[in-house]
Amino acid sequence: MKELLFFLLLVTEASSRFNSSRCRQGCDCQGDLKFTICSRARFTHLPSRVPPNTELLDLSDNSISVIHERSFSKNRKLRVLLLQNNNISVVEDGSFSQLEFLQKLDLSWNRISTLTEGFSLGLALLRELQLSHNRLSSLNSQSFLHLDGLQRLNLSRNSIHSIQVRSFSSMSSLRQLHLQGNQLTSLKSGIFSMLRSLEVLNLAGNQIHETELGVFKPLTSMTLLNLADNQMSTLDFKTFLSIHTYSTHILLEGNPWNCDCDLQRVFRKLRSIQRLFLDDYYNLTCKEPLVLKDYRLMDVDTELCLAETVTVLIITITVVTTVLAAMLMGERKRKKKKKKKHWTQQGQISDESDY
Fold this sequence. Notes:
Layout: H1 2-21, E1 28-30, E2 35-37, E3 56-58, E4 66-67, E5 80-82, E6 90-91, E7 104-106, E8 128-130, E9 138-139, E10 152-154, E11 162-163, E12 176-178, E13 186-187, E14 200-202, E15 210-211, E16 224-226, H2 237-241, E17 248-251, E18 257-258, H3 261-271, E19 276-278, E20 286-288, H4 302-354
Parallel strand pairs: 2-3, 3-5, 4-6, 5-7, 7-8, 8-10, 9-11, 10-12, 12-14, 13-15, 14-16, 16-17, 17-19, 18-20
Antiparallel strand pairs: 1-2
């Protein structure tokens, strides 16, 4: 038994030395786990010596600035590639094209400003893509062209102000889309048109003040819609009525609501829809009118709206009564004038007969 344990120790030590000899200085190569950890190694370029059987490669917290074409051609077995917190500003077309088994790619906390069509080449099996805290300003139909199997996409904390229609058209499997902390001002119909599997849509912390009718209609699997901390002052009931999921939770806190009677009516109708859940309704506060500033929407006296309705009704009745009275008086005058004219004509006929 002792001889067997001694033999296993020798094999393990030999294997460790073998892996270390193939491992770039500054990296820790765990051959048995197929991990290569090169985090905080002060690399300015991708390491050239990485064990070919590596499945997890951690290159986070370095100073890498460029990912060249086919950079990982010798590491085709990679399943997880961590490149967060570098200085990456350039990702050449086809940089990841050899990574047909890659499932997670983390490029967060870098300086990436554009995504070309070649960025996603070879990543058909990718499940998770992290691009938060970069410098992206717009998305188009070429940005994620080959990401057919993607399930989670994090684009939070960029500078995205424009999303073209069909930007996510290849992502029929996407389940989570995180766009919080960008600069979106409006949501146009069609930008989410192919996301039928999407369950979580996070749009918090943008500057959204307008949503086109039907923009959420294609999202037939959505369970969470986060629109908190935007610039929405009012809502269009039909925009949310078009959500046809079985159960959707909606977050709207932190918007500058104009608590007029129209808004109260919209929320009253929304809360009556059984498939929609306004989870933070009791925390919604008013910004306008000034007399209601900082009031909670739920505390605004509904009698104000009732009084407004009564006032409008009284005015309407008054106007209708006035119009009807004017029409009646006009009709009476017309009949009186017609009768007078008739008697005048009769008198003329009588005078003529006397002659």
